[in-house]
Write a structure and sequence with these properties.
The complex is a heterodimer of chains A (about 150) and B (about 575). Chain A folds into two domains: about 55 residues, no CATH class; about 80 residues, Glutaredoxin, CATH 3.40.30. Helices cover about 45% and strands about 10% of the residues of chain A. The longest helix of chain A is centred in the C-terminal third of the chain and has 14 residues. The radius of gyration of chain A is 17 Å and the shape is elongated. The mean pLDDT of chain A is about 95. In chain B, the strands form six sheets. Chain B has a five-stranded mixed β-sheet with strand order 2-1-5-3-4, with helices on one face. A four-stranded parallel β-sheet of chain B has the order 11-10-13-14, sandwiched between helices. A four-stranded mixed β-sheet of chain B has the order 12-17-16-15. Chain B is globular, with a radius of gyration of 25 Å. Classes of the chains: A alpha+beta (about 150), B alpha/beta (about 575). Chains A and B meet through helix 3 and helix 4 of A and strand 7 of B.
Amino acid sequence: MYREQTLKKFNPALDNILYILHDLQDNNPEHYLAKEDIRACADYLEVPYSYVHSVASFYTMFSLKPRGRYIIRLCDSPPCHLMGSQSLLDYLKKSLDVKVGETTKDKMFTLELTSCLGACGVAPAMMINEEMFGNLTPAAVDAILEKRRKEL
Amino acid sequence: MIKAKINNVDVEVPEGTSILWAARKANFTIPTLCSHPDLVPGGQCGICVVEIEGIPGLKRACMTPLGEGWKVHTHTARLMEIRRQLVELILSYHDTDCLTCIKNNNCELQALAATLGINTVEWHSLEERLPIDRSSAAIVRDPNKCILCGRCTQVCSNMQTVNALAVNHRGYSTVITAAFDMGLGNSVCINCGQCVVHCPVGALYENSHIEKVWDAIHDPDKFVVVQEAPAVRVMLGEEFGMEPGTLVTGKMYAALRRIGFDAVLDTNFSADLTIIEEGTELVSRLKTGKNLPLITSCSPGWIKFMETFFHDMIPHMSTAKSPQQMFGALAKTYFAEQRGIAPEKIVSVSIMPCTAKKFECQRPEMRASGFQDVDFVLTTREIGRMLREAGIDLNEMPDEKADSLLGEYTGAATIFGTTGGVMEAALRSAYFLVAGRELESIDIAPVRGLKGIKEAEIDIDGLKVKVAVAHSGGQARRLMEKVQDQLRNEGKSEYHFIEVMACPGGCVGGGGQSWGSNMAKRARRGESLYAEDRSLQHRRSHENPSIKVLYEKFLGKPNSEKSHTLLHTHYYKRSTVDGDIIAEQ
């Protein structure tokens, strides 16, 4: 099971809690921290379950709900906003038929917002998992999503 | 000593005194919301900010030790405006249905708003009501009332080391809940209710049984019996404005009779019975040397704590039920038989200083009589409310006596209500059982008082019995870890007998005590119980005449088969994630 292997990589010190949670989330097939992940971390670090949940729920980079194969993070900071991220968001919501924070029925995409990605020069920008995309338009977004659907 | 000026008044206080307490010495009350005399200041609310000449910015009075030569101002126009704004912001997301709130007239936020002269709230941002958590048998949590002061999480994690409640999410979404919002009833919560007694507002309160008890009292077909825990007789007076610790046993009986209980009995009777059963258990374990130390089992908060975090100690636990449950089992058997009442007509009510007793009475194994042994549990606060509803003022009550059969008690029983009491009571009887004569000095001072873990060594006929007493989850944890280490490394523990109570101060500090309680009040209630003990004719449980009759007529002898069926219990192993039973021991 991935949990044991993940935990083995780190010393059981409280300083490592964020690294452990990131690793657990990355290795969870649904890209989130399940109750079992929280428990595994709590048991490994010998800290209360509620404490690990408290930490995980504080940081927006952790999800406590199952997510899709691809996590879309659309930049919501002022430069992207000025360059039309709002209408892109409306477009994404409509074409994926989800609200922010939700996952498509086929479990392919989860739509999230993010603070500045440092790519203001190519605003509006977004990330899909670890990949960066700029100068977005509805047509460009369609192409990017379609490519991922076909990769399956 | 530190010399300084607060609002131009000279003050002199020991080094390290916070500005908050120094100001009180100079007769200025700096308003606060999150600070509590028994807790470490966290500075969450910011209401207590003050100005110090020559130091930029504002300082929180609760967290800032007074400095030499400082000139502190506590009530400037700027500070008063800031405080008003802070409280208005808190009120903007607080559910202000004060008239129907459980804390109406006892709310620290309500009092603060009045003190600061707030007459309008400019902002309203409470967008949606969050669901009220009613999953627990003992405690209700209303997140709409929560002001995020953090007292409950501090007591839950630091004082009790239970960690059921935590601060979750962030910003506007911040909530104090059990992990994954699963509800206190589905968490490791031990139902001790320390969060309830420390909450400044109405965000935490007991799961009330008042309605159900009124229904039973008003039902002519029901015979409603009531028992009152030892600590209640030194607490109930506070509900009616009496000094903390006032002993009101006789008035309490009279008041309970007047609101319609059919038989007014006393948990103190079954506390004596607990001592006989547990004392016999102790003596037999001392003889065989098996499963020592013996650990007390009266506190239902401690029981769930042990089942969750220290279930390897189950063989060490006394199997004796708590006095509440012993009483419950006897009310629908022995009492019903002797009085000729059908047990199905009996409604058994207990009045407890405790919220965890509400959980305990609903445990599935607590049905020794063939019915739920104790039907309803009222906290001291709830019986105070019921008496007020019924127009009864405890101050005006005459002194009456409890009814017979399950009403008589000794001094050993009454001290159950404070930390160290069960230990002292058990030693008084164990000495007699082992040595065949009475303990000369009946007062066992080293196990008394509110200091941390207490230890003593008693010589019983050459046998040196080492005992320890812990009160609060945190102390229990420290003591159990020590015992576990000794058992693991040396094969045996230095202790023979351990008393644990889940609440600081024991039952006088329980989760069912009056609002606005603190350690100083708990201490006064404890002293009062020792005073009652001294005043009673019988001070050893085995001298209780009604107990002797009970064994002669009904139970046979201590630890007999019948006592085991009715008066003893078993424990479970519970999950550290959700408190669910994972195995039966």
